[in-house]
Amino acid sequence: MSAAAQPVEVERQTMAVDIACVGFGPAMGGFLTTLTQAWSENPADPAFESAVMPGMPLQVLCCERADDLAAGVSGAVTRAEGIRASFPALDPAQIPMAAAVKQERILYLLDPIGASRRSFTLRAADRLLRLGGAAFLKDNAFELPWTPGFLHKRGGLLLSLGQFNQWVASQLMAGGLVQIWPGTPVSAPIFGAEMGNEHRTVNGIRLTDQGVDNHGAPVAGFMPGTDVRARLTVVADGPIGAVGRALNRQFPRGERREWALGMKMVIELPEGATLEPGTVWHTLGFPEPQIFGFLYVHPDRLVSVGIFVPSWLGDPARTAYRYLQHYIQHPALWKHLKDGTLRSWGAKSLDESGRRGEPLLSGDGFARIGEGSGSTNVLTSSGVDEAWTTGVQLGEAVIELLRAGQPFAGEHLSKTYEKRRRASRVEQGVRAAERARDGFHSGFVRGLAAMALAGLTGGRLPFKARIQPASKQIWPMRPDAETDRKLLDAAVALVATGRSFHDALLTVRGWPEIPFDGHLLVTQQDALLLGGKVQALPGFADHVRFKSKDLCISCREKTCIAMCSGQAITLGGDGAPAFEREKCIHCGACLWNCAHPPGEESSNVEFVAGAGGLHSVEN
Amino acid sequence: MAKSFHIVVCAGIVPDPLQTLEPATGPTGPAIKNEMLLPAILDPWAACALYEAAKLAQEHPGSRVWLVSLAPKAKLQQLMMNVAQKAAFELVAIDGPIGGFADAHGTAAALAESIGAIPGLDRSKLLLFGGWESATRGAGVTLQLVGERLGIADQFQGVDRIDILDDGSFEVLERVEGGRHQASICAGAPAVLGWATGSLPEPRNNPQLGMANMRTLMPAIQRARTVAIDANGLHYVSTSVPTQQRATRVVKDLSPDEIAHELAEWIGAE
Asked: How far apart are CA A300 and CA A277, in angstroms?
């Protein structure tokens, strides 16, 4: 039986604004900054007069799910061309934890443990490197002699995205044009039926009901979500946002089959640390060949260290937190991180489809910007500046339409916003990157070769592969096969001692136990407490639900449990996953880690709008 | 006697108390490490006072609510994006240092001066609200000192309830030892009420209220006067955070009785 909430049909309050915005990240920062800067030049400009509140400036409202702006943890290294264009006098010292990029290294990490799944070719290459000894290897790592141009972030910025977004928000709020509301999840777009064009128009957004039980049924203090009517709805709620995904269903475009979970720690280095602020490491090869990693050095002895666990990892036992703990213990990293202290932790789903996942960018009354609009460059592994730039492009388009007195109709947005976007470096970049990662679906070595080829030829020589839906990328468990059965039996025995199933699976596959030290190597639950605080405000419905319990019970892989960043999904006594909102950090990994969805491109997990999530200690 | 009130809520901002806080020594003395980077909330006891004030004002037409807050302007701005959706109020922002290590007398002087300068404030209707405790390292006396500086003699602490009577007087329930309340009748405003938790839940976010509030809040933040809090010779010998122990383990299918037993055993062992 489905646990999905029944829609609540009640009379709702409505309010009217000129522009309703969903989600506050870099893309929305770019959009609102562009709008605010133009308005600030001449607040009396009649083009900026509100249509819903004549005599007042444009009424611009931005709703953000998290309890605070940019509360989640995220480190980023970016070329920052678009950001610097918006803030020509930008001084990184103004933004906490920001630094100019000074040096970049690419390290291929060998497996000092022998537990990772490496192909024959890769094992042979490792052997050759080891034969070369110290000439090639240092701390079980091989440093590429040069960083390919397409990966370089020379002249760029190393940011804590959370701090950057807060800095942008403070500039915006001081401007006075824009209102940003954290703690305000948006449940859906409001589709209209103008000009006989039923459900082709977006007329605003519906905020999430408050005062409901876990299943969405009204309880004491019920407050139906307000309908915010808007001339233009700007959607930047990322790849797992409820509004963006509702638009994807309404206007099917693009193919979103490639995902990754980015999980990161902010670590305070011990006294005497030698890593220089502005240092950037990209790593590959460990803890699994398919898992890329990074280390960014911020000022004040803080580093961001993290990994990306992609959908094409294949293995259903993809417990990202455990992998991250092994990653930071790799000798090349551990020599710097040992004796450090965990200050913050977090995770986020990344849409790795890039331009291939591009949805309908604009229509009557709406436009999409940022990661959810397919702006991420999967070749250069960069998305922040690209997202910012798409926001700027929409901002410029909106200003043009306001000055021309034209409505925010699809045709006008297409001629202004989409035209700018198509002619931009963002578009050139995502086109070149479109098939850059296809090779990874045929193996790690092919993936690297195909990526290098795409990078060095600007995407002119792509490696073409058929990308399976995310659910099909998960290898099926085969309890009838002897090896799998032995592994499963051993894991089940460990589970009986109180271990989580996938953590136990990694142990029986040869990954050593984590030597907990209480300050950096801590349990996943302690990371939830030390690294931040999960906000699960009462009065909101559960945002994770399972459509068919039977499908979940019959699923052997249970990958949604393995990939749950906060261990908010656990195995219930009836064999179905159980969800605890109080642990959920809203990473959205469960959505694309469903091995047995009811339809090929769908998921048995329903991920709806919800308030809260992880509020990282330092983001 | 008047049954409309001018309610002034004094509310500081504090790092979210559930974050991991680390003491540090700053240029001016003790501090919390990276406090400006930590998420901030309205001091929880003062937040209860604000919600009670908003309800009281709603029930008594003609009443007004001001929120007076002393904190760095940037943090106040960040916080108001959350608070403004929850209750109707006018903001009096004072741009000052963050943290609870400031001298309570100096803080009270700055607050009292700003309250005294609120245009249109009728002291005969004044109810001075705040928290009776604080999640900062405050001394817990600031509100009383503000009241004294404003010449308000009737002061109540640990308030959980106020009932306005027909003649404009009001009954106050204050927490006393043994989990009981002391009931007092006060002839009327002006009075100081330091709230415990009150009885109201945190209000739902209301975007319409937020939109209306923010039209006055942002200009108020921009107008914030900057104050330096005099240390008045205050000197801290040492600082520390409360001892915290964390031992996580996952246990399933334990009955409530067994959990209670284990907790009692653990407490007994401490």
From this structure: 8
